[in-house]
Amino acid sequence: GQQVMQIPQYQHVQEGEDFTTYCNSSTTLSNIQWYKQRPGGHPVFLIQLVKSGEVKKQKRLTFQFGEAKKNSSLHITATQTTDVGTYFCAGVSSNTGKLIFGQGTTLQVKP
Amino acid sequence: DAGVTQSPTHLIKTRGQQVTLRCSPISGHKSVSWYQQVLGQGPQFIFQYYEKEERGRGNFPDRFSARQFPNYSSELNVNALLLGDSALYLCASSPTGPNEQYFGPGTRLTVT
Q1: CB–CB of B98 and A103 under 8 A?
Q2: CB neighbours of B102 closer than 8 A, spacing ≥ 6?
Q3: CB–CB of A99/A89 below 8 Å?
Q4: CB count in 10 Å sphere of residue A88
Q5: How many Cβ contacts (< 8 angstroms) between chains A and B?
Q6: Measured between beta carbons, which residues in chain A are less than 8 angstroms from residue B103?
Q7: Burial of A43 (0-12, 13-18, 19+ CB in 10 A)
Q8: For residue A43, which residues of chain B lie inside 8 Å, CB to CB?
Q9: What angle do CA B101, B72, B21 make, to 5 degrees?
Q10: Can you tell me the distance from the alpha carbon of B56 to that of B44, in angstroms, rounded to the nearest whole number?
């Protein structure tokens, strides 16, 4: 079945450093979504990308959708302690229409 | 505006019992999805309902069932509980289909 893989699983950075998490799907996606989950909380929607090669920015966060619509990345510039949490990508399969989550990348930021 | 609400917040059940979890979507949202999240993993898709019809089902056994009511609220039922069913059960609503999901706070189910 469809799989969505994320790397790395964990990342520890010093405040001010950049951070990137990568997401790869075994099948073509109709869209990719990104979520953030704080410890003890629930996933919060960040953004949705639909078009091949699409790039969107939200302040210090940059999201990309690959040309083949099978991979995506989230880049955070100059991390802050408020960026701590687990970042999930979630892809909607072009075949099944189901939303499948990756296993997440947990970001720790040292002040 | 109220977000997605779920009840109960926490639940402890014994193996073999049955449980019903409830979810109220954001007003105007017609799609409700259910996810199971085990510690350290991403949410696993269980069901999606849109306009009271099942639109998708994940790889979960038939012990799991759900329904959506005319007011778009939803229930998730799990029969014959197993220890492995212990997890955070998340409900999410969206205006249409599997697009941007707005999650509720979840129900923490513990099976002993």
Answers
A1: no
A2: A45, B3, B4, B25, B26, B29, B92, B93, B94
A3: no
A4: 26
A5: 61
A6: 35, 42-45
A7: buried
A8: 43, 90, 92, 101, 103
A9: 75
A10: 13
User: pLDDT (tens digit, 0 to 9) for every residue of chain A, 111 residues total?
Assistant: 778 999 999 999 999 999 999 999 999 999 999 999 999 999 999 999 999 999 999 999 999 999 999 999 999 999 999 999 999 999 998 888 889 999 999 999 999
3-state secondary structure of A48: strand
β B107-111/A4-7 pair status: unpaired
Taking CA–CA distances from A10, the nearest residue in chain B reads B40
For residues A94, A97, A98, A102, the Cα torsion angle rounded to the nearest 10 degrees is: 30
Q: Which of A98, A103, A106 to mutate to test the interface with B (most CBs of B within 10 A)?
A: A98
Selected for mutation to probe chain B from A99, A101, A105 (highest B CB count within 10 Å) is A99
Q: Which residue has the tokens 């995506």?
A: A72
DSSP string, B46-92: EEEEETTEEEEE-S--TTEEEEE-TTS-EEEEE-S--GGG-EEEEEE
Per the listing, tokens 């959506």 go with B68
